[in-house]
């Protein structure tokens, strides 16, 4: 049966050039099951929502000050690098290399920073539960920015423009802050800026909108936005490939973690992925369970119940985590939006091209997976044409990238 | 103590006692609302479960409200253990839900994240003098 | 939103306390095993061909010692891995004979009629405490390859490390009521069902490899506690190193095991932690 379908797809594609030649793409037939899956991959963009753990979230001057900090090398030891040196705006906010070597060789691939607002977990192992605490990480990491906090505090306090802008934005006096408060505040400003780094509608989103519209109005079968090849790839993605088991929802990620059989040995040991991520979360003073979560203070509800030691609602996900054996070597299911621009791939950058990731899934090593019951992942053994289609579909997920731009006027009285 | 005072005290106490009976009975009387996501009898229990929203959202944190009564009309006030599994893949959630009783028979549970599409089985375990009662509810995400 | 707020109201104090408790524990768990720690025996270790390649025997033994293991039951696809480790540390390794030549024969081996001859030859030439871990479900346990495996275990007076459902376990006991079975992963059954099996078959023991439901944040689940207290002499722990990387999990797993074992009475913790496995190995290697 599978082979018959494959043959059909192959034959269809052989005769496809005729279709491609015309500007009008046919919409393939989708059954209700497929339509439901396609619908579930949107809408895009998501509704923007303030991060309650960060009181500066969505504040105009915090976004601008965060933007300045993002490009500021003074945040690192000896001014070696800024965030933007690894998260480069013209490379979809990543660095294009498998593993960066900042102050020392890293063992994880630099992630792109698109669409990070209001995600449940940050980092390949989900070591952090807020964008701001994740933004503190590189400053504390000796191999990355290795920030000398007292030196940083001194330098920034002596910069009268920065000091003034900081005061205006946060109401805090830089020189008076404890190092922890300084870190957290910088993290929250950086996060406010990063929330604005977003990708717009991709061709897939336009196609989805079209399909959803067609369901609601009278169907127009002509002029599909995706080519037939891309649509064949889409069908693999939501069907036989079972990609939407993990790369689900509008982000093309369920926000959780998985082990797809990528090796997690590092140059000199092992990357325990989610296992260490959960352990780190449980001891992190900057997690949402700690005192820096700005949502805590607003939760009077708990007091009404006479329950003072309560957990803020935005930390419930963190407090209910359980540590499982399978977490050992699981990594975050990455979003696939703009995936065509974020090579190399995987937590360790071990796969260099998008086609290689397709090959990886096609020839998956099942023995590495401890699957019980019906398997989610199994080698797909795709034909070359199917591989091309799947890749074409993945490439259709790119939308225009935008981020907050410079707004010098905001701090005009600090000049 | 003069007789009249004594009898008044007894009378007052009796009234208070009667009142308290009425009050506890209304609190303890356990009834299920209609139209919740799960509404059924299971062994000696009547159970109503309502998710915080429908349709459920994949990968999002969900909570549930449960009302649990004995068929006799008394409220269940014991512990609830909960998890959810995907029977086809033999795996559960990445989270351990917890329940709190807000008033007799009324519980709030949170920590539910269904992270994959497909058939999920919600499992609640209650403990009574007659042993354990497992309540299973299948739903598709 | 509204419902989230409602949830907030009712988060229990208990939950908070449990959480802060485990906070301390997880800090503690980071500590390296030292002389004062309870010894453990890990009954579920594989050292397959690719693990041999990525973690050579010397390093592998180092990891087992770092975990503070007194002994490790090792079975490998192919058996060569087990022999390499046994040669490196005979005091530490309890060799178990895996009927697979390479990883990935979990569902094919029981139809492979060349397996019994391979087992016979290896059993004749080497020392083993058991045969396994092998996979078999339901009626397949009556296939000739399994029958012969059960016979061989009986001939050599060694145990069977069986990964399968309770039906498979029952069929094997039908073939040989005196067989000794170490039930891998306790069949992934719930504690009540495991109890039924342990009650019915006195020669059945069970390992807890790859299971977490018995412990949450250092506390033993009440249903499992009942099982542990009812059958303290029948349960063992194990990691299951099913990929090369998982070798490094042995250390974390030992630390994790010690945290929840500490929530049991000391004598029961010692039985589950190592004494039961010690007895099983002693019986097999007499």
Automatic annotation (TrEMBL), chain A:
Record key words, sorted? Heme, Iron, Metal-binding, Oxidoreductase, Signal
Location(s), subcellular: Cell envelope
Q: Which Pfam families match?
A: CCP_MauG
All copies of the Cytochrome c domain together span 228-398
Main location per the UniProt record? other
The keyword Transferase is assigned to this record? no
Classification via InterPro entries: Cyt_c-like_dom, Cyt_c-like_dom_sf, Cytochrome_c_Peroxidase/MauG, Di-haem_cyt_c_peroxidsae
Signal sequence span is 1-21
Protein name from the UniProt record = Cytochrome c domain-containing protein
From TrEMBL, chain B:
Its recorded name reads: YtkA-like domain-containing protein
Source organism of this protein record: Marinomonas sargassi
From TrEMBL, chain C:
Q: Name one Pfam family in it.
A: Amidohydro_2
Domain spans labelled Amidohydrolase-related: 113-278
Q: Which residues form the signal peptide?
A: 1-29
Top-level taxonomic group: Bacteria
Q: Which UniProt key words apply to this protein? A: Signal
Can you say what this protein is called?
Answer: Amidohydrolase family protein
Species, as recorded: Marinomonas sargassi
């Amino acid at each position: 049966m599978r082979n018959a379908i494959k043959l059909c797809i192959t034959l269809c594609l052989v005769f496809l050039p005729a279709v491609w030649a015309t500007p009008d793409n046919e919409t393939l037939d989708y059954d209700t099951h497929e339509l439901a899956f396609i619908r579930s991959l949107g809408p895009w963009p998501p509704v923007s929502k303030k991060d309650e753990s960060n009181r500066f979230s969505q504040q105009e001057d915090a976004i601008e000050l965060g933007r300045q900090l993002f490009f500021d090398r003074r945040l690192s030891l000896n001014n070696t690098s800024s965030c933007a040196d690894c998260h480069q705006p013209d490379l979809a906010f990543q660095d294009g290399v498998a593993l960066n070597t900042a102050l020392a060789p890293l063992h994880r691939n630099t992630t792109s920073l698109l669409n990070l607002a209001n995600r449940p977990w940050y980092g390949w192992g989900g070591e952090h539960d807020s964008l701001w605490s994740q933004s503190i990480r590189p400053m504390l990491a000796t191999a990355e920015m290795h920030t000398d906090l007292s030196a940083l505090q001194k330098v920034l306090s002596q910069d009268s423009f920065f000091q003034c802008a900081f005061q205006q934005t946060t109401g805090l006096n830089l020189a008076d802050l404890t190092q922890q408060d300084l870190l957290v505040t910088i993290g929250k400003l950086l996060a406010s800026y990063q929330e604005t780094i977003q990708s717009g509608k991709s061709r897939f989103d336009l196609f989805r909108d079209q399909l959803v519209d067609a369901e609601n109005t009278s169907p127009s079968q002509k002029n599909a936005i995706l080519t037939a090849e891309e649509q064949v790839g889409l069908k693999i993605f939501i069907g036989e490939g079972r990609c939407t088991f993990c790369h689900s929802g509008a982000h093309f990620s369920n926000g959780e973690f998985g082990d797809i059989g990528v090796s997690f040995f590092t140059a000199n040991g092992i990357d325990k992925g989610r296992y260490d991520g959960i352990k780190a979360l449980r001891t992190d003073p900057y997690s949402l369970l700690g005192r820096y979560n700005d949502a805590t203070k607003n939760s009077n509800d708990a007091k009404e119940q006479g329950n003072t030691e309560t957990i803020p609602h935005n930390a419930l996900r963190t407090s209910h985590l359980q540590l499982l054996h399978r977490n050992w070597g699981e990594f975050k299911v990455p979003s696939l939006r703009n995936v065509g621009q974020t090579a190399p791939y995987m937590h360790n950058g071990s796969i260099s091209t998008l086609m290689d990731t397709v090959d990886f899934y096609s020839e998956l090593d099942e023995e590495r997976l401890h699957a019980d019951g019906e398997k989610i992942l199994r080698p797909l053994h795709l034909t070359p044409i199917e591989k091309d289609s799947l890749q074409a579909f993945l490439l259709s997920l790119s939308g225009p990238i935008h981020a907050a731009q410079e707004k010098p006027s905001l701090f005009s009285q600090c000049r | 103590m003069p007789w009249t005072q004594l009898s008044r005290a007894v009378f007052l106490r009796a009234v208070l006692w009667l009142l308290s009976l009425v009050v506890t009975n209304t609190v303890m009387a356990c009834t299920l609302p209609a139209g919740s996501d799960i509404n059924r009898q299971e062994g000696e229990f009547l159970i109503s479960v309502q998710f915080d929203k429908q349709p459920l959202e994949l990968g999002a944190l969900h909570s549930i409200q449960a009302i649990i009564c004995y068929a006799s009309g008394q409220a269940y006030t014991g512990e609830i253990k909960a998890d959810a599994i995907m029977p086809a893949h033999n795996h559960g959630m990445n989270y351990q839900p917890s329940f709190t009783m807000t008033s007799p028979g009324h519980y709030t549970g949170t920590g539910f994240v269904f992270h994959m599409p497909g058939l999920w089985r919600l499992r609640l375990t209650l403990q009574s003098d007659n042993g354990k009662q497992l309540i299973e509810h299948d739903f598709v995400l | 939103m509204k419902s989230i707020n409602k949830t907030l109201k009712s988060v229990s104090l208990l939950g908070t306390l449990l959480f802060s408790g485990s906070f301390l524990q997880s800090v503690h768990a980071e500590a390296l095993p030292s002389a004062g720690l309870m010894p453990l025996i890990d009954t579920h270790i594989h050292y397959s061909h690719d693990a041999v390649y990525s973690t050579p025997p010397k390093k592998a033994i180092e990891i087992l010692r770092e975990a503070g293991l007194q002994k490790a039951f090792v079975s490998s696809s192919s058996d060569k891995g087990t022999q390499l480790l046994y040669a490196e540390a005979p005091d530490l390794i309890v060799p178990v004979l895996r009927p697979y030549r390479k990883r990935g024969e979990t569902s094919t081996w029981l139809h492979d009629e060349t397996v019994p001859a391979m087992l016979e030859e290896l059993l004749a030439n080497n020392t083993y405490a058991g045969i396994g871990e092998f996979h078999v479900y339901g009626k397949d346990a009556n296939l000739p390859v399994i029958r012969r495996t059960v016979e061989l275990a009986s001939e050599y007076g060694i145990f069977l490390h069986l990964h399968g459902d309770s039906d498979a376990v029952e069929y094997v006991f039908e073939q040989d009521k005196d067989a000794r079975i170490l039930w891998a992963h306790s069949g992934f059954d719930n504690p009540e069902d495991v109890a039924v099996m342990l009650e019915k078959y006195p020669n059945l023991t069970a390992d807890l490899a790859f299971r977490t439901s018995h412990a949450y944040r250092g506390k033993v689940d009440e249903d499992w506690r009942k099982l542990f207290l009812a059958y303290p002499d029948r349960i063992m722990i194990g990691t299951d190193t099913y990929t090369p990387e998982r070798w490094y999990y042995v250390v974390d797993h030992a630390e994790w095991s010690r945290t929840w074992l500490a929530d049991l009475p000391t004598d029961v913790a010692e039985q589950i932690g190592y004494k039961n496995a010690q007895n099983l190995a002693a019986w097999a290697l007499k």
